[in-house]
Amino acid sequence: MKQEHIPLLCCLECRAPLALVREPAPVMAGPEIEYGALECQACRTRYPIVQGVGVFFPTSLLPDYLTPRERQTALTYGVEVPPSQDEGVDDLEKRQIATARNWSYQWNVAERYGRDDLDGDLWFGEEAFFLFIPLPKERIRDRVAVVWCGGRGRETYHLHKCGSRLVVVVEIGDEIYAIRDQLDPGAEVLLLRADMTKSPLREGVADISICDHALQHVSDHQKGYANLVAALRPGGLAAVNVYSHENNWVMTGVVEPLKPLLHRLPLRALHYLSYVPGAVLYALLRWFYAPLNRLLPPSQAARLPLNSNMVYWAEKKKTLRLVSNTIFDLVHAPISYHFRQQEMEALARANGVRVAYLKNINQTTWTLVGIKQ
Ligand SMILES: C[S@@+](CC[C@H](N)C(=O)[O-])C[C@H]1O[C@@H](n2cnc3c(N)ncnc32)[C@H](O)[C@@H]1O
Description:
Oligomer: single chain
Bound molecules: S-adenosylmethionine
Shape: globular
């Protein structure tokens, strides 16, 4: 985080401006504030900055989210961290906390992709990014983009490659600390560890606001989408990709009903167990879908169950590891919502977004790109 980024932010509690705490002095690396704290100029709430990442959680939830290093920095810079209290936290909030924990495992342990993967042509590459978030490249160059639920940095990397002026990332999990390492030195990025439903971003600061493969995992997706749009200036582009309800019978009819059972397993066990259906699916992709799609006329191949999704997986998830990790991703999510087309249209309408593009991609997700009015 740099000093010039601070005016883009505000207090979670009262939305007042923030200022850098001078005492104790922040730790700087050139223009980057590596360690320190921001303080609300009205209510005096403090937010730690850890390894350049602004950490923004409501005070009462800090014990549930902070890593040991974040806690240490918070204490050094006078951030109040109350004792953990299980009782005050409602069930949905607990599932949101579990969401952060699960994806921390996914991106820090199970699927630690890096620059080679981002430059490759599989799922982490540029082509896959633009399939789900189909923004014109010329609308990215020199613009300020916000990536909501940015994971380990896939979207941030591709937006930077297209010449974004600044990419702001809001991500609830500690995988956000991996993002800077993926970028070229000097790439302008503002990293915020926060829940997108409790956003520290000021309104109207961005030209592009995107959330890819993630809004379905947010405790209150309506609030999350409202914040995504609020961050945009009028005329800005909002792009999301989410699970679709339509056609997605494997998720709604099989995976979701099994989750109460599967979620009794430790996460690591669930990860390794995912290699069992992963191996079956991997075999199906290689020895059933791929050859049949070469042999059959397209109109007949299209009749195979979930054909477009399977063809896509055969092409972009070429290894057993990628297929199994995708299954793990689908089964571990503590919160998953499946959107209907009308709900997508209603989300846009309710937030003053004119729909420019709405498409069911690979029969399992909706992509909605709209323009803030
Ligand atoms: C399926 S992953 C997608 C990550 C990234 N968008 C990508 O496609 O590579 C979902 C991400 O959403 C994040 N997430 C879930 N709920 C969130 C919330 N309320 N606020 C911010 N991030 C959230 C998770 O931590 C996880 O990294």
